[in-house]
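ok posting inputs for the magnesium ion job
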Amino acid sequence: MGAVRLVLFDLDDTLFDHRRCYRGGIAALRRRWPELRRQAWAAAVDEYDRSLALLHPLVLQGTLSSADSRRARLRGLFQAGGLEPDEETLREANSVYAGRYRALRGCVPGSVPLLRSLRRQGVRIGVVTNHQVAPQRKKLHELGLEGLVDQVTISEEVGAVKPDPRIFEAALQAASIDASAAVMVGDSWENDILGAQRVGIRPVWFRRGSEGLPDRSVQTLRSFRPLARARSVILNPPRRRPGRPP
Ligand SMILES: [Mg+2]
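and the output
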């Protein structure tokens, strides 16, 4: 196994701390409309996660706008609190949510030092993300990541969404680097881990949630801190356990 020359990162909830933003948005709504607290915090976040997972693919397909997707999620939060929000309430909710979301926008802790450190070592950095071009470019710019990333592969541009092998192949091609010298770091088991494996890229699962590990041979990171550990997992393939056939 040769040295790692390319590390690909997912963007949302791997480099960009999306979870912190939307949780903050939900908390702000619950402060503004205390009735929403009839639903337990954990249940509200779970419900929001589920609804995001359900609606986001429609946004990617272009059959639902981001704005309508957000309205549907906000409406769901109100309905779970026993409220039927009118247009005016939904508009205000959108602005309360978006304001807090924007205020909290930032990178996942430890990700920027990690990117810097990998690049100093001559490793090429790529982003591979499922979404439209405009919001993802804007996000990279606002997060200050543009200067830390050598290449960006966005599903809308490629015409294929993770876990489709074509998006990973496009990223490898942009780098002119073989899959065997690449690593993919991402939080989605299906999109990032299984997708990367299908094209022969070694995956590292960024496991921030509480889900179990479906395959123990896959390396995981719960955090990008401490830096030395994150670097070591990303740059070194797993050691085979003694006693196991190669
Ligand atoms: Mg993600």
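notes: The first helix runs from residue 18 to 32. Strands lie at 6-9, 124-129, 151-154, 182-186, 202-206, 219-221.
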